[in-house]
Design goal:
With 92 residues, the protein is an all-alpha fold. 86% of the residues lie in helices and 0% in strands. InterPro entries: DUF5964.
């Protein structure tokens, strides 16, 4: 399951780099922030969809503890990205 979290960590790193560029008044920070936020949001949605299709095809109805943890993490990431996006749209 580690391989599911690694892309989100990379995208959080690029988000942090974009915010660092913003703080140091350099140009191009908008692209880093926008691409990392879009990537985080889409990655979470795609994993929810692929995971749900896989469980439905296997006929599984219950989630294991590790599945609850990863889906909770991805749901939290998605909710955080939506809230940050709303904030940035309202204040810029």
């Amino acid at each position: 399951m580690k391989w599911l979290i690694n892309p989100t960590l990379i995208m959080f790193f690029t988000l942090g780099y974009g915010l660092y560029l913003r703080g140091s008044s350099q140009t191009g920070w908008e692209n880093w922030v926008a691409f990392s936020m879009v990537g985080l949001g889409l990655y979470s949605i795609i994993l929810f969809f692929v995971g749900g299709i896989g469980k439905a095809m296997r006929g599984e109805k219950h989630f294991s503890g590790s599945e609850k943890l990863i889906y909770g993490y991805l749901g939290g990431v998605w909710a955080l990205i939506v809230l940050i996006s709303i904030y940035l749209m309202a204040h810029n």
